[in-house]
Amino acid sequence: MCTTLYVYKFVDYDLSTYSLVGVSGKSQILFALTFTTRYLDVFVTFISFYNVIMKIIFIVLSYTTVYLIYVKFRASYGASNDSFRAEFIVVPAVGLAILLNHQLEPLEVCL
Question: Of the given ranges (17-21, 36-40, 51-55, 99-103), which has the lowest mean pLDDT?
Fold first, then answer.
């Protein structure tokens, strides 16, 4: 719940100040991809209503943040200062996801 409030306040701050100085767009894309792959089971299994709602909120707020960075506030986003090298995290993570799983199925590899 605290993480949801933090993400909400982050989006609210972006909308109120119209500035994204110091925010890494590449890391926000990784957050969105992480939440998407981690919470794919929301469409397959039902645990509780609260669980479903929180997963959907995480996914929607993650992609809202990416939208705000790359579309709405593009002028205030410093792409030249975003030196985060995402491939150093993505490539090993994909390799480990393929190698270390119980069954080689798309939902198993992503979760």
Answer: 17-21
Q: Report the largest interatomic distance among the alpha carbons of the chain, rounded to a whole angstrom.
A: 47
- Show the tokens assigned to 92: 């090993």
Structural domain of residue 29, as residue ranges?
Answer: 23-110
Q: Would residue 96 count as lying in a domain?
A: yes
* Full-model pTM: 0.70
**Residue 42 pLDDT exceeds 70:** yes
Residue 101 has pLDDT above 80, yes or no: no
SS3 content of the chain, % helix, strand, coil (to 5): 75, 0, 25
Phi-psi region of 83 (alpha: psi -120 to 50; beta: other; left: phi over 0): alpha
Q: Which residues contact 18 (CB under 8 A, 6 or more apart)?
A: 73, 76
